[in-house]
Design a protein that fits this description.
The radius of gyration is 21 Å and the shape is elongated. The chain is built from 12 helices and 12 strands. A 7-stranded parallel sheet has the order 8-7-6-9-10-11-12, sandwiched between helices. Strands 2-1-3-4-5 form a 5-stranded parallel sheet. The chain is an alpha/beta fold. 36% of the residues lie in helices and 14% in strands. Bound molecules: NADPH dihydro-nicotinamide-adenine-dinucleotide phosphate (NDP) and ligand LL5AMS7Z. The site of NADPH dihydro-nicotinamide-adenine-dinucleotide phosphate has 30 residues, from helix 7. Keywords: Oxidoreductase. This is 2-hydroxyacid dehydrogenase. It holds the Pfam family 2-Hacid_dh. It comes from Halobacillus seohaensis.
């Protein structure tokens, strides 16, 4: 008998066929996120669940007595209580590597559009406001040969460093708990203390996972250390940056601007002051959103799911994480 699994998101025919070969499955085919009540009903008798993001806590586990695998279709997994899952014999998996280049491209988009004011320029040209371009606001910051500080030199951080160093002749410095000698060698990177990275960078990118340690890693004091014209880019998780402190720092001119793909509350609230700021570029948590990357993530998640429910070893088991459910 094939193991039973639930797929909590529409997937391509190719991914569905692969799952069908190995499992009995049901699938949520609606565009909207699956409501919790339906999810909890569907996981009552399955061994595997594939889902973009699950909040796995006591409540979830009570509803899934046969569950062996939660296969996340994402890299970040701060919503998985990994201790609790281990106690209940549930393996968590995620989808690293296959989206690194795609997310790095988006980050470069944020770096370029926040420094060169691309969204305002587009708006002005389309509105016939060419004359606004005399405003000194538009004498913007060079990206090439500037210093990029990357906080979290992991898979994605390294791809950003590659683009910055080889493509834009940037000096790249980074802060990480462990050193990355190979990446240092390949891209001429230098590891520094967090304070130094903040003080010396023209662009600061936060690319750490969200954990107890990285929650509000960037707050009032850290923002104060940054150059007055520096731009903060956050494409990791909103809660890595203290958003109130960021709003204040932008308001007070402590830093020059921000490029944000992630927010403390998502979807970002319409009343969030960040949305009113001319020196803030926003995208809707869309780092991995190309057709290729999303398909690769879904296939990777399907492979992890199938391996986990058929007695194999999934390739991408999540590490124990000091989680924040
Ligand atoms: N916007 C989007 O659409 C996307 C966002 N993400 C987010 O990006 C995050 C990073 O992804 P990825 O690069 O694949 O992850 P990695 O695990 O490869 O990299 C994370 C890096 O952060 C470092 N790090 C972890 N904790 C700390 C700490 N307390 N202080 C300093 N450095 C730390 C790690 O090194 P060390 O442990 O040695 O310190 C590691 O180098 C994901 O967790 C996810 O939240 C991912 C994909 C898409
Ligand atoms: O935010 C996206 C992810 O894959 O993590």
């Amino acid at each position: 008998m094939k193991p039973k699994v639930y797929i909590a998101k529409p997937v391509s025919q190719q991914v569905e066929n692969y799952i069908a070969e190995h499992c009995d499955y049901k699938i949520w085919r609606e565009k909207e996120d699956i409501p919790k009540e339906i999810l909890y009903k569907e996981i009552q008798d399955v061994q595997g669940l594939m889902i973009p993001k699950a909040k796995v806590n006591e409540d979830f586990i009570k509803n899934a007595p046969q569950l062996k695998v939660v296969s996340h279709i994402s890299v970040g997994y701060e919503t998985l209580d990994t201790d609790l899952m281990e106690q209940n014999g549930i393996v968590g998996t995620h989808t690293p590597y296959v989206l690194d280049d795609t997310v790095a491209d988006l980050i470069f988009g944020l770096i370029l559009s926040s420094s060169r004011r691309l969204s305002q320029l587009d708006r002005y040209v389309k509105n016939g406001e060419w004359n606004k371009l005399d405003d000194p606001f538009f004498l913007s910051k060079d990206v090439h040969h500037a210093t990029l500080g990357i906080i979290g030199m992991g898979r994605i951080g390294e791809q950003v460093a590659k683009r910055a160093s080889l493509g834009f002749d940037m000096d790249v410095i980074y802060y990480n708990r462990s050193a990355r000698p190979e990446a240092e060698e390949k891209y001429g990177l230098e590891k520094k203390e967090l304070e130094q990275v903040l003080q010396e960078s023209d662009f600061v990118l936060t690319m750490v996972p969200l954990t107890d340690e990285t929650h509000h890693l960037i707050g009032k004091e850290e923002l104060k250390l940054m150059k007055k014209d520096a731009i903060l880019i956050n494409a990791s998780r909103g809660k890595v940056v203290n958003e109130q402190a960021l709003i204040q720092a932008l308001h007070d001119g402590e830093i020059g601007g921000a490029g944000l793909d992630v927010y403390e509350t998502e979807p970002v609230e319409a009343t969030n002051p960040l949305l009113q700021m001319e020196n803030v570029v926003t995208t809707p948590h869309i780092g991995s959103a190309t057709a290729n990357a999303r398909e690769a993530m879904a296939m990777k998640a399907a492979e992890n799911l199938v391996a986990g429910v058929t007695g194999g070893k999934p390739e991408n088991v999540v590490k124990e994480l000091k989680h924040l459910v």
